Amino acid sequence: VHVCPLFLTLVPTLVAASYISPCKLSRTCYKHAPSLLLLHAKNNDDEKDSGGLTYSSPVTSFLGRFLPSKEEAGAISLDEATFSGRKKLSIDDMISALDQGLREREWFVTGDVIPDLFAEDYTFKDPDVELQGIEAYANGVKRLFDQETSRAEVIECSLNQDATRDANDERDINDTVQVIRVEWRLSGNVNIGPLQGLRIKPYICISDMHVREADGLIIYQEDTFDIPGYDILLSAFFPWLPFLAPEAPPVSEILKSR
């Protein structure tokens, strides 16, 4: 799809603005704000590889149409041999594997996942997008983020007892999970627009990784953010607006303040 760069920048902002509601201006609603994390709408030639992708927001569905195709981004293929090393890990070992792997690979933006940590029935969800399969997730984030500028810097990776209790309240007693919460700082550019794309303001993401106790594999990931979606979008186009939140400080400063 060949479109004018001005169209790429102005139209999404106007569309996004039309979906700002009073709820989205409240900190208590940030987890329901539009996401920029997985704007990987399927192109016509990507339908069969979409991982059951569904949208709850017309904004993300619209913006995703301007991303590079999976082939243009460098498709990630995870065949059966990729998963040959799956084995049950203790929760402590899973925390260590996630912490080390994310620091080394930053797969929340690169897509360079460790497949053996994920179940075949893995599902990803954020406020706007839901999909099935770790391969679909890996290709989605690689398509979205500029690989030269984007960073996913881990702040903390630990077992979260409150999230675990809440998750198990909704599950069968024979299908329980433990929730590892990964707090991380997102920065860089997304592949929308010319050159290296559109810069997004650094902000903090929370990824809750649900580890199934029966096999020790990640079956579900849900992402939320510390700023509302309208702030993420408007900051990319109009960073001088006075009501927008400041950029998230560097990870080193965040850790020093705790």
In short:
The chain has nine helices and seven strands; from the N terminus they run H-E-H-H-H-H-E-E-H-E-H-E-E-E-H-H. It is of the alpha+beta class.
Describe the protein.
The chain is α+β, with helices and mostly antiparallel strands. Helices cover 30% and strands 23% of the residues. It contains nine helices and seven strands, in the order H-E-H-H-H-H-E-E-H-E-H-E-E-E-H-H. The protein has a seven-stranded mixed beta sheet, with helices on both faces. Strand 5 and strand 6 form a beta hairpin. The longest helix is centred in the middle third of the chain and has 15 residues. The termini are far apart. The N terminus is likely disordered.
Low-confidence stretches: 1-29, 31-50
- Overall pLDDT confidence: 78
Largest sheet: 7 strands, mixed
**Portion in beta strands:** 15-25%
- Tell me the Rg in angstroms: 18 Å
Sheet with the most strands: spatial strand order: 1-3-2-7-6-5-4
Query: Number of DSSP strands?
Result: 7
Distance between the termini: 47 Å
Number of discrete helical segments: 9
Structural class: alpha+beta
Q: Which features does this protein show?
A:
258 residues, alpha+beta, seven-stranded mixed sheet, 9 helices, 23% strand, globular, disordered N terminus
Q: Layout of SSEs?
A:
Layout (H helix, E strand, L loop, with lengths): L4 H13 L36 E2 L2 H6 L6 H4 L17 H15 L1 H4 L7 E8 L3 E4 L1 H11 L6 E9 L1 H9 L7 E14 L7 E15 L5 E8 L3 H9 L13 H6 L2
Parallel strand pairs: 2-7
Antiparallel strand pairs: 1-3, 2-3, 4-5, 5-6, 6-7
Helix pairs in contact: 1-8
